[in-house]
Amino acid sequence: MRKFIAAIDQGTTSTRCIIFDHSGNIACTASREHTQIYPQPGWIEHDPIEIWQRTQEVIQEALNKIDIADREITAIGITNQRETTLAWDKATGKPYGNAIVWQDTRTKPICDQLAADGGQDRFRKKVGLPLSTYFSGPKLIWLLQNNSLFRAAAERGEALFGNIDSWLIWWLTGGPGKGVHVTDVTNASRTMLMNLATLDWDDEILSLLTIPRGILPSILPSSDPQRYGTTLITGPFRDTIPICGDLGDQQAALFGQTCFKPGEAKNTYGTGCFMLLNTGDKPAQSRKGLLTTLAYQLGKEAPVYALEGSVAIAGALVQWMRDNLGLINQSADIEELAHSVQDNGGVYFVPAFSGLFAPYWRTDARGVIVGLTRFANKGHLARAVLEATAFQTRELLDAMEADSGYRLSSLKVDGGMVNNHLLMQFQSDLLGVPVVCPKIIETTALGAAYVAGLASGFWTSIADLRANWQARITWQPRMQADRRAELYQRWLKAVERTFNWIE
Fold this sequence. Notes:
alpha/beta; five-stranded mixed beta sheet; seven-stranded mixed beta sheet
């Protein structure tokens, strides 16, 4: 009998089901987008019911594409957009409103109030994170303060809270009356509520923030053969299949890129841009504005930690140029437009639409375009849009090397934007190291499949996973060092122009 692993990849703009064989190759895939909801400036929401519907649809579509029987699926792994937060009724599964997306900035007053006593890093030693609108904890506080029905239900023990992984696992394992309410260490480490040392919710922080512990999911290892539960025959699968793995999307990409040794790093180019560096079995506290986070935990093994740098707007800037300005018809068109000019013409675009993430953590910043002259045209703007992602990545790498003491000899990359050769070549030029894209670029889903497959015995060791990894293309740096330094210094000047826009 054929055997496969299924991965559910619930991202910021779409939900996918990808089915992998033992070699880590894609057997089939299905994807559907969901609605982006913008109730007011700075607010970004998703409909949790729509996400659950899309999840069921892509599972069915993937199974039907190559006629895979449920009994041929050994296990299921889940990966998800992190920090996107929702609460729902335990008895009915009805959400208390839309999910608050990770990019949403409505919690700035809450973060400012908490920072007034102890500063932005008052919880960093315990949780590895600064106070920021990015994380789930402030979003949960906002929900408790602004939704009286949820607050009352939470106090009665009748409500549940979680990131999107918890929501999907709860429904996949039965929903009302049956669903398993769990998360893994990587997702829990993005809430600002989990203690990095104990891998449990921190009672002192919960008490300070008046968060009822009973609404929180149980925290499990990323790879666990028993405790995530199984799917139901009445759900999108036609048979019971064990759910054995759960990883936040960026940690899943790190795992899918087989970055298992300290000092190995990857960068994912998607809606945002996320670089993670494996730091081994000890958390490394950052002095350069990076995040200390969980990389993964396999069963009863010691947890593995990572440093992370996060950029809020990467591929989303290309979408903005397409949807808001109408300068391109499809996202892929930006490469041809950027190729119409030799360089950026002195134009720099800093996309601080929701403030700046690492290494600045400035919620007062907003986007700017600088260096405009009469010479500039839409081709230069297209260049500036692409180069913004590469410049932000350079900032993350500089901070990462300073914090970790590791000097990267190459950077593994994945995500949708790696198909843009102009961007990847510029990225290699700007970093001064080779940029390497794997044969399978769906590394987020692959990482979720890998942790599920290890737990279920589909793969026996991480050596099996390393054997699967193959490079598809490598970009070598071609830019002179003095030119690289000149461009980067101009970028840093442009970043300064974004500060203090919001009073």
